[in-house]
Each structure stands twice: as structure tokens, then as C-alpha cells.
Amino acid sequence: METFLRSELELAVTEYGAVLLDLRDGQYWQLSRTAARVVQALRDGRGRDGAVADLTSHFDVAVERARQDVDTLLDELRSAGLAVR
């Protein structure tokens, strides 16, 4: 089952990663460069597998580790109400 970001989110890229702003309530989250790449992949419609592929092509990380990291971030985004299945 694929995860989608809520449409009320804005992403602003910074030199350290990105800031994710929830327009519904004004809360924001600072994202690392890795998390920012995952969120951008989701926004681009590439989904979980696309995010994993992006991480493995830009960072020196094994596919299984990238998959675990993406899944952890997706769980956190869903728990915060920023993403839905």
C-alpha cells in the first residue's frame, strides 16, 4: 500500500535539508537532507520504491538500509498526520 503526503504541506529546501510546513495548523518540521529527498520523491509521485532508489543513487547506502530508513520516515510522517495510505 502506497503512502501519500497530504496536499496541505509545503516543502522549502534549505542548505541543510528542508522544512516541511503543515498549512492546516502552521506546524513545521526540519528535515535532514536524506529525509528531504524521501519527501521530494513522494511529492513527485515516485513512492516508496522511488525514494529508496533515490537514496541509493545519491548516498553510499545499501538498498536494505535505505528501505528501512524510508519505512521509518513514512511511519513517522503517518503518525504525525502528514501522510496517509
From TrEMBL:
Q: What is this protein called?
A: Coenzyme PQQ synthesis protein D (PqqD)
Source species of the chain: Micromonospora carbonacea
Q: Which domain of life does this protein belong to?
A: Bacteria
